[in-house]
Design a protein that fits this description.
Elements lengths: L3 E2 L4 E4 L4 E2 L16 E2 L8 E4 L4 E2 L2 E2 L12 E2 L2 E2 L12 E2 L2 E2 L12 E2 L2 E2 L12 E2 L2 E2 L12 E2 L2 E2 L12 E2 L2 E2 L12 E2 L2 E2 L12 E2 L2 E2 L12 E2 L2 E2 L15 E3 L5 E3 L13 E2 L1
Parallel strand pairs: 1-7, 2-5, 3-4, 6-8, 7-9, 8-10, 9-11, 10-12, 12-14, 13-15, 14-16, 15-17, 16-18, 17-19, 18-20, 19-21, 20-22, 21-23, 22-24, 23-25
Antiparallel strand pairs: 26-27, 26-28
């Protein structure tokens, strides 16, 4: 906990807890690492196996590049957090690199994500984080809430629920998109598959360009909202005295007396 990590934290093996140590070289490059907390890590902390729990640490390198990553909280992540295997839970951390580029990503909350969050496998839940890269580019994305998304959120697989996030890239470009609410969408929200529900969001790009679009409410749409599917109500066309046609309103389904309906 409370350590600065400038190199990979758990690139392989099984890492133990860490406490009050400065680590400028690899801490446990193989096997099982001992407890470490409140230490500066400028080299790899556990280069093999399963990473232990980490909290309130700055991570400038990959945190768990292989195996299963432990829980992480309130840490700045400038490199990949769990590039392989299964990533542990992460909260209140800044992520400038990929958070879980492979395997299954753990839960993440209140973190800034400037790189891909879960580029492969199954992504964990994410909340109140800024996402400037793809959040779950493959596999199944976890729930996301109150995050800014400037890259694709779930570019493949099944996207999790998302709420109160700004989306400047595609939110769920493939697979099945999860629910989304109160988010700004400047790119396509669900460009393929089945889009989840969306509410109170600004949509400046296509919202559901393919598949089946979810429900949408109280949103500004500056691009196409549903580019395919079933159109709205049909207007009847009646002939006038000069032989031209005119459209009736939605409230009326009949032509005036003596005027034929043109089909």
């Amino acid at each position: 906990s409370s350590g600065d990590h400038e190199g990979p934290d758990s690139s392989g093996g099984q890492g133990g807890p860490e406490s009050s140590g400065d680590h400028e070289g690899p801490d446990s490059s193989g096997g099982q690492g001992g407890p470490e907390s409140s230490g500066d890590h400028e080299g790899p902390d556990s280069s093999g196996g399963q990473g232990g729990p980490e909290s309130s640490g700055d991570h400038e390198g990959p945190d768990s590049s292989g195996g299963q990553g432990g829980p992480e909280s309130s840490g700045d992540h400038e490199g990949p957090d769990s590039s392989g295997g299964q990533g542990g839970p992460e909260s209140s951390g800044d992520h400038e690199g990929p958070d879980s580029s492979g395997g299954q990503g753990g839960p993440e909350s209140s973190g800034d994500h400037e790189g891909p969050d879960s580029s492969g496998g199954q992504g964990g839940p994410e909340s109140s984080g800024d996402h400037e890269g793809p959040d779950s580019s493959g596999g199944q994305g976890g729930p996301e809430s109150s995050g800014d998304h400037e890259g694709p959120d779930s570019s493949g697989g099944q996207g999790g629920p998302e709420s109160s996030g700004d989306h400047e890239g595609p939110d769920s470009s493939g697979g099945q998109g999860g629910p989304e609410s109160s988010g700004d969408h400047e790119g396509p929200d669900s460009s393929g598959g089945q889009g989840g529900p969306e509410s109170s969001g600004d949509h400046e790009g296509p919202d559901s360009s393919g598949g089946q679009g979810g429900p949408e409410s109280s949103g500004d749409h500056e691009g196409p909202g549903s580019s395919g599917g079933q159109g709205g109500s049909v207007h009847l066309s009646c002939a006038d005295s000069q032989g031209g046609t005119r459209h009736l309103s939605d409230q009326s389904g009949t032509c005036p007396s003596g005027v034929p309906v043109e089909t």
